[in-house]
Here is the input.
Amino acid sequence: MKLATLIAATLLALPAAASAKPLFQPWIDGIQAGEPQMQVQRYDADTYVIRQSVKTNFEAPFLYLLFGKDRVLLLDTGAGGLQVRPTIDRVISDWLKAHHRASIPLVVAHSHSHGDHRMGDAEFKDRPDTAIVGWTAPEVAAFFKIADWPHDIVKFDLGGRVLDVIPTPGHHPSHIMIFDEKDRLLLSGDTLYPGRLYVSADQFAAFRDSIDRAVAFTRDRRVSHVLGAHVEMTAAPGKDFPEAAPAHPNERALELPYADLLELQAAVHAMGETAVKDVHNDFIVFPLTPRPKR
Ligand SMILES: [Zn+2]
Ligand SMILES: [Zn+2]
Here is the structure.
């Protein structure tokens, strides 16, 4: 091995070691009586991660707000039980002030349209300069100009910040992942997050194909972090909170290493044609079987 190659390999290995340091301050976890309904954390000046309090809805989802020069993308609008628009409008207005601008168009999109990711949509219906992406796969495909869903991966330019939209049906027919070339983040929705990755038995093949598509696209793109839409794992490897837990004491960090996407890929391929419950340190593949008839 040449020295330069060795150095490059060493540098590539560094982020994994450095990832022991959490990317964010502790998230609201339902333990403090007076925690806010939403918590905004800045990833960088153009990237914000927002958590909905588990006290407002047990799903406690994460929302993402990504600014470009020409528009800002809101990914998901929460699980209901609170007003999300005032928080989003405040972050946007602070950003505008910092950039000495009066306005920026907003695009409201969804990782997928399960109810816990779109309940705030109605709040944005009458918002000026705002486009809301529809909830079905054909509507998502039409908005992002994806001609061959789910095979085509398309670019969505926020203005000096290009996102790649990766169709990833399986968990839900309209699911997408978003790769952000600027920060090299992979926003993975409910397809991969630290928790129970629900997939119904009849969608398992689509889920597996979507993981393959996401891996094929991101393999050489040096993903910095995989950021999903929930946390359901405790800090203890392989141990999740009970379903609908009212609080998340000692919660695992939100960010996952890229290696977890490869681990998920290997796991779903090892299952053959039938999904089985499969507990990993950072996630649990969780098949949903149709309820038996009685
Ligand atoms: Zn979902
Ligand atoms: Zn969800």
About this structure: Helices lie at 3-18, 85-98, 121-124, 137-144, 204-218, 259-270. The first helix runs from residue 3 to 18. The domain at 25-288 is CATH 3.60.15.10 (Metallo-beta-lactamase; Chain A).
